């Protein structure tokens, strides 16, 4: 359990964090994943926090030596030491599906980091609220209205995907969206599978799907360049135009291949997370009538203040305070991302333990979200936790924190609120399977996709 620093001049000996490394090769990956498959991803974390240390414990995940940093102090440490002591790290499967996430495109990644906040900051997003409202209206009209029952999860996936296609690349045609959505499912599965690139494996299907979508996106990018030059496309119509027209400080533009890859990453990162959040909003509102009533009241006041056909705008969103508190409570109890990895870029000490360079470090939303120390009665659904000053710093982290905090956070907030508006304005509903199991693989979702019975409001 002792770790000898090997670099010349750093001969000190430190104690590694307590914990066990599990089975040869797979380590504790199976236990880590299987608590999620059984619907309790926090169990892996809490069992080890109580057995070894509430601050940090050692394990072995995704074929790597790893340490899990726990509590708000662990989150704060990892979020605040980006590029000082730690850097982002993704499992090998992600690097293989997105080859440009390797060293070759470090420069592009930095460019992307600067570019995204400009597009996703509130002032830029404001002009897309009306478009989001229109797409959401269309989604509910085609997929929900006139149905007595629906299975929610496939619908929320179609919703967030259609919205992303429109806002990121102006793909509007439902047939075109439907053609792209199928390969996307294979990519999402491949990203967190064992990276076995053999014919017939899910991993190979994911790589093929990513290549297919990249080719489609490249064709769209080439056409867009022509349309922009001819004045047939607008420089502000979507994120694609924004990427094509934004140069770095040396006047250099992003390359087509990198733009395709980044949009692919945004489509993947954006739609599965938000669709998981939306399905849990439907679930909790079905289970908690008094919470539903609060959201309904708020949304109807906004709906009734609008002229016929008038679209939602930014001001309306700022009035949806209770609805957003409800959404935050959903994100606390069912965070779409359970956590993420970093890599130690140097040897360092944390909480009295040595962390060797190269170790993979994991922060977990659940180590605070479901911890009674930070959220009393953690299983209780209580949106008032988000009133006033809200939760203590680094305890509520569904979007991460620090320099790598989710750049799509505001976009997600808008799409979730617009979704809630259309949902409660139209329906009340009840779950068809009252005790439907939850599976976390890797996003949480109800095992049968959440079938519900819809009760449209009388006109
Ligand atoms: C409810 C919805 C969402 C949740 C819960 C969520 C959560 C997260 C989290 C926790 C991270 C940080 C991972 C880390 O620490 O390494 C992250 C990163 C990221 N998210 Fe989101 N996200 C959501 C929606 C979106 C959307 C809509 C987009 C795109 C429009 C997006 C794009 C990204 C990207 C590009 C990153 C990587 C940032 C980086 O590595 O610097 N996310 N997201």
From TrEMBL:
Chain residues that bind heme: 406
Cofactors that this protein relies on: heme
Organism in which the protein naturally occurs: Platycodon grandiflorus (Balloon flower)
Subcellular location: Membrane
Protein name: Cytochrome P450 716A140v2
Membrane topology note: Single-pass membrane protein
Molecular-function annotations in GO: heme binding; iron ion binding; monooxygenase activity; oxidoreductase activity, acting on paired donors, with incorporation or reduction of molecular oxygen
Domain of life from the UniProt record: Eukaryota
Main location per the UniProt record: membrane
A Pfam family matched in the record: p450
Gene Ontology terms: biological process: sterol metabolic process
GO CC list: membrane
TM regions (residue ranges): none
Assigned keywords, A-Z: Heme, Iron, Membrane, Metal-binding, Monooxygenase, Oxidoreductase, Signal, Transmembrane, Transmembrane helix
Gene: CYP716A140v2
Family classification: Belongs to the cytochrome P450 family.
Keyword Protein biosynthesis: no
InterPro entries named among the record's database cross-references: Cyt_P450, Cyt_P450_CS, Cyt_P450_E_grp-I, Cyt_P450_sf
């Amino acid at each position: 359990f002792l770790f000898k620093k090997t670099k010349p001049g750093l001969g000190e000996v430190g104690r590694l964090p307590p914990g066990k490394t599990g089975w040869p090769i797979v380590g504790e990956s199976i236990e880590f994943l299987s608590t999620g498959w059984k619907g309790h991803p926090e169990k892996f974390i809490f069992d080890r926090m109580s057995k070894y240390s509430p601050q940090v414990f050692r394990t072995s995940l995704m074929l790597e030596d790893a340490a899990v940093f726990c509590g708000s102090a662990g989150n704060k440490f990892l979020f605040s030491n980006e590029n000082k002591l730690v850097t982002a790290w993704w499992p090998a499967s992600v690097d293989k599906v997105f080859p440009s996430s390797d060293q070759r495109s470090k420069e592009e990644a930095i460019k992307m980091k600067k570019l995204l906040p400009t597009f996703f900051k509130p002032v830029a997003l404001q002009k897309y609220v009306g478009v989001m409202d229109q797409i959401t209206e269309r989604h509910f009209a085609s997929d929900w209205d006139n149905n007595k029952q629906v299975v929610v999860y496939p619908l929320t996936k179609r919703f967030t995907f259609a919205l992303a296609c429109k806002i990121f690349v102006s793909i509007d045609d439902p047939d075109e969206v439907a053609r792209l959505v199928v390969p996307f499912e294979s990519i999402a599965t491949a990203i967190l599978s064992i990276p076995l690139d053999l014919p017939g494996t899910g991993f190979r299907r994911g790589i093929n799907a990513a290549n297919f979508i990249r080719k489609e996106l490249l064709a769209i990018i080439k056409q867009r360049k022509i349309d922009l030059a001819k004045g047939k496309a607008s420089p502000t119509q979507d994120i694609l135009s924004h990427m094509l027209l934004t140069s770095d400080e040396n006047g250099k533009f992003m390359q087509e291949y990198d733009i395709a890859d980044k949009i692919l990453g945004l489509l993947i990162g954006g739609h599965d997370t938000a669709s998981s959040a939306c399905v849990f909003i439907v679930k909790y509102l079905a289970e908690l009538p008094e919470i539903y009533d609060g959201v309904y009241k708020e949304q109807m006041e906004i709906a009734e203040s609008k002229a016929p056909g008038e679209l939602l705008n930014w001001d309306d969103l700022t009035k949806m305070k209770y609805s957003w508190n409800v959404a935050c409570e959903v994100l606390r109890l069912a965070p779409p991302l359970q956590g993420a990895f970093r890599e130690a870029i140097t040897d360092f000490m944390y909480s009295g333990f040595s962390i060797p360079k190269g170790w993979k470090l994991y922060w977990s939303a659940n180590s605070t979200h479901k911890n009674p120390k930070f959220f009393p009665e953690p299983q209780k659904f209580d949106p008032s936790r988000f009133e006033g000053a809200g939760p203590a710093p680094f305890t509520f982290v569904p979007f991460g924190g620090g320099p790598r905090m989710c750049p799509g956070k505001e976009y997600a907030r808008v799409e979730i609120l617009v979704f809630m508006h259309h949902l409660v304005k139209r329906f009340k509903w009840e779950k068809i399977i009252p005790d439907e199991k939850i599976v976390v693989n890797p996003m949480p979702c109800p095992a049968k996709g959440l079938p519900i019975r819809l009760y449209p409001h009388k006109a």
